[in-house]
Amino acid sequence: MFDKPITIYYHQYDNDCTRKESEFMYESCLSVDGIGYEPESLISMSDGEEIYSACPIWRHREERTFAIRSPIDFTVHINKARKGISVPNFTQDQFQNYVCGNADPRWCTDKRISIQLAIPKFIFWTDEKNIWIEQKNHWRTAVKNNFTAVGGWYNTSNWTRTINPCLDVVDHSKDIVVKRGNILYEVAFHAPKKSRKISLVKQTPPKQIQNRFVRGFNIKRFLPKKTIEFALGDTSSKCPFRFGSPQDKG
Q1: How many domains does the chain have?
Q2: pLDDT per residue over 110-141, tens digit each?
Q3: HEC sequence for the chain
Q4: Is the distance from CB of 54 to CB of 48 less than 8 angstroms?
């Protein structure tokens, strides 16, 4: 008897950094079919001709990992001397809305330049217990777009939050250049029983999900250290890294 797939719901939208997310999460046109790109499993992008395509280990990962694509063209120019960035093909409103400001001066150093964008944004949620979501880099962006995506993971059954691109520039002397449809990063899902398949379902977030998101966001503002307990799903351990991987935690 095979277990039924795990249903993961998702909603895609664009951000306005000057407004509260709860006010416009439902307004974005990216949720309209054909405007934003839907997550695509890596296995669906395979031509089946890879010499390793029959390998069950490879296929297991590809079936549970999804590519997130850019809905727009953009070019990011970095002025390292002045520690400033510009996006020539953005209007002033678009720049204000989609480029997240960072007061930390370490965003631009000799070793690293990190930029956070607010488009596209995704919120994922599920009714299943102990499902982890991992945001990670897609190998092609380093050579094609001049960035690597910053990754992380959390227990999406416990913690409802949004994810969006945070980029580390590869060659500081060159621009980041992205075309509509280019992959920005990947998301993967980890379940206690690794053989269960993942089914992504597009859905407008119900009010209860929005409320969970807002409550979590307020916890982060009110008591930041508490967020790690919710995000990692372990309120009994003082060490957030007691589990070696999301698979171990379940």
Answers
A1: 1
A2: 899 999 998 999 999 999 999 999 999 999 99
A3: CCCCCEEEEEEEECCCCCCCHHHHCCCCHHHCECCECCCEEHHHHCCCCCCCCCCHHHHHHHHCEEEEECCCCEEEEEECCCCEEECCCCCHHHHHHHECCCCCHHHECCCCEEEEECCCEEEEECCCCCCEEEEECCCHHHHHCCEEECCEEEECCCCCCEECCEEEECCCCCCEEECCCCEEEEEEEECCCCCCCEEEEECCCCHHHHHHHHHHHHHHHHCHHHHHHHHCCCCCCCCCCCCCCHHHHC
A4: no
CATH code for the domain in which residue 165 is found: 2.70.40.10
Q: Tell me, yes or no, if the pTM score tops 0.70.
A: yes
